[in-house]
């Protein structure tokens, strides 16, 4: 067994131990297991939400994107618009959730619109979106561990061992286990990625400026936005779309519900843009690999970080990098497992069996964790291209939940439950069509100016969703005068009863 693999195994055991320790002294009610009893202060909440920001993408996708395509996808990875939305949107969501004992994202829609059926629809859309996301995290984890261990462990074995580890501590400790392991994961990522992002440009080029000058000389135009395709208008629209979808994911809202107060959420929204600067160091690693390990083709480009690490460091340090990468997959995966088990029990099973008590739901949620893990493992090894297609659609699917949530926070919600249903379903159907057919604004409207052709087609789908949502709501809304009559009738009946 080589040094790198020993280091990775040490941190995996540490994660399990921390995850199990997190449950000590806690009475594991459903609220405590699913959202940490709404007791996480700014410190734990910071690591929990940051845990979702830094995934396998930080190690494979961001550096690989910079290596493969240059500046546009690199800048796309650094998206602070998330936190502008978080600052204004999350506190009212948290207040409503606390007041109405909401513990899952689907619960929020169910109670806001007084419609369990809408909660089920949101649960189905969410599960279809996050299982492919979970599978991609696991696939990335397998590649990272196999690469960091110099091939001494296969990706499939790494995935199975890791899934067993997170199943153990998520079943036992729920959200508490996720938060505790997120702390050590973020400390490791911060140390490893920042160090490599500074070391590689200095060691191989003499600094950042000489590195970018060398790349610009070797590959002219690689560091600027192109005139069409991944242009400025694509960047702006894609940034808006991902930011609107980001907090619609059930595991992200579970993190929000776990906050102790709205002040913690606003504090986090203010700090996270600074913390996200870490992504830039991951991009520096990708840029530094362009001239040092040239000609990486296709998926190999995503291994740019590990090619540089193995070329530059001793195996034990490559093991530390591998352990950090593995945890970058484990923490979001454990958060997704917790949220999925909660919405399946609370918003699907309980609708079917309404007399189920909270204690029974808590037991069911914990029993669902290993079941979901087994299903996920099956699709990880057998899912094929359909899983990848669903993964591509995940953000666009979640963006379709935004209008109904956003309008529900208004003092006078203009959306009816029928409008919310119609907007979501129409939006989802158009996303499926545009993704599977490769339709873009450029293919639909080739005569429009380039700046419009390059817009993310998801933005147009969202506008259609909003139009349908408001249009159907206008038709199905009960006329005020009728409501007034109804109120008079109810009032009159009340007097008769008295």
Describe the structure.
It contains 25 helices and no strands. Helix 10 crosses helix 15 (278-292). By secondary structure, it is mostly helical.
Briefly, what is this?
The protein has helices spanning 3-21, 30-35, 42-53, 56-69, 71-77, 81-99, 105-112, 116-148, 155-173, 175-205, 208-218, 232-246, 250-257, 262-275, 278-292, 304-312, 315-352, 358-382, 384-399, 402-408, 417-437, 441-444, 450-453, 457-476, 480-497.
Topology:
Layout lengths: L2 H19 L8 H6 L6 H12 L2 H14 L1 H7 L3 H19 L5 H8 L3 H33 L6 H19 L1 H31 L2 H11 L13 H15 L3 H8 L4 H14 L2 H15 L11 H9 L2 H38 L5 H25 L1 H16 L2 H7 L8 H21 L3 H4 L5 H4 L3 H20 L3 H18 L1
Helix pairs in contact: 1-9, 1-10, 1-17, 3-10, 3-14, 4-5, 4-8, 4-15, 5-12, 6-12, 6-14, 7-8, 8-9, 8-17, 8-18, 8-19, 9-10, 9-17, 9-18, 10-11, 10-15, 10-17, 11-15, 12-19, 13-17, 15-16, 17-18, 19-21, 21-24
- What's the helical proportion of residues? over 70%
The N- to C-terminal Cα distance equals 82 Å
The succession of helices and strands, N to C, reads: HHHHHHHHHHHHHHHHHHHHHHHHH
Radius of gyration: 24 Å
For the secondary structure, the number of strands is 0
| Shape call | globular
Helix and strand composition category = mainly alpha
- Unreliable runs: 492-498
Mean pLDDT: 86
The percentage of residues in β strands lies in: under 5%
| Individual helix count | 25
The main pleated sheet reads as: none
């Amino acid at each position: 067994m080589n040094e790198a693999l020993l280091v990775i195994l040490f941190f995996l055991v540490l994660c399990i131990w921390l995850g199990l320790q997190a449950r000590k002294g806690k009475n594991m009610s459903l609220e405590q297991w699913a959202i940490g009893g709404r007791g996480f202060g700014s410190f734990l909440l910071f690591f929990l939400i940051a845990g979702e920001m830094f995934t396998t993408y930080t190690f494979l996708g961001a550096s690989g994107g910079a290596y493969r395509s240059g500046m546009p996808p690199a800048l796309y990875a650094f998206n602070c618009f998330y936190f502008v939305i978080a600052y204004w949107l999350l506190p009212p969501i948290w207040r409503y959730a606390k007041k109405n004992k909401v513990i899952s994202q689907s619960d929020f829609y169910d109670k806001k619109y007084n419609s369990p059926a809408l909660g089920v629809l949101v649960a189905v859309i969410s599960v279809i979106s996050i299982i492919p996301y979970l599978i991609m995290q696991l696939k990335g984890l397998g590649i990272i561990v196999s690469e960091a261990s110099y091939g001494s462990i296969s990706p499939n074995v790494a995935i199975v061992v890791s899934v067993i580890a997170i199943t153990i501590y998520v079943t036992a400790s729920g959200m508490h286990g996720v938060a505790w392991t997120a702390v050590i994961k973020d400390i490791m990522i911060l140390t490893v990625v920042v160090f490599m992002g500074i070391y590689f440009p200095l060691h191989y080029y003499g600094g950042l400026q000489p590195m970018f000058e060398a790349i610009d000389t070797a590959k002219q135009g690689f560091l600027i936005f192109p005139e069409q395709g991944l242009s400025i208008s694509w960047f702006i629209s894609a940034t808006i779309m991902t930011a609107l979808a980001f907090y619609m994911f059930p595991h992200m809202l579970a993190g929000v519900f776990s906050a102790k107060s709205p002040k913690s959420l606003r504090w986090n929204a203010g700090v996270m843009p600074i913390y996200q600067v870490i992504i830039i160091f991951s991009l520096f690693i990708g840029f530094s690999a362009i001239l040092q390990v040239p000609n990486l083709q296709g998926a190999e480009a995503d291994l740019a970080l590990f090619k540089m690490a193995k070329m530059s460091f001793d195996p034990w340090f490559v093991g530390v990098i591998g352990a950090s990468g593995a945890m970058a997959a484990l923490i979001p995966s454990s958060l997704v497992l917790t949220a999925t088990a909660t919405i399946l029990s609370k918003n699907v099973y309980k609708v079917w069996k309404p007399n189920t008590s909270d204690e029974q739901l808590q037991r069911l949620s914990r029993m669902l964790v290993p079941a979901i893990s087994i299903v996920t493992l099956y699709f990880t090894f057998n899912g094929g291209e359909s899983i990848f297609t669903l993964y591509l659609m995940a953000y666009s699917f979640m963006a379709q939940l935004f209008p109904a949530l956003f309008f529900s926070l208004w003092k006078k919600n203009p959306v009816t439950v029928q409008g919310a249903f119609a907007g979501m379903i129409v939006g989802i159907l158009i996303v499926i069509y545009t993704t599977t057919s490769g339709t873009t604004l450029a293919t639909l409207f080739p005569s429009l100016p380039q700046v419009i052709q390059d817009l993310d087609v998801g933005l147009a789908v969202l506008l259609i969703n909003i139009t349908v949502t408001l249009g159907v709501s206008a038709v199905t809304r009960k006329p005020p005068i009728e409501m007034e009559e109804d109120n008079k009738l109810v009032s009159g009946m009340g007097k008769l009863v008295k």
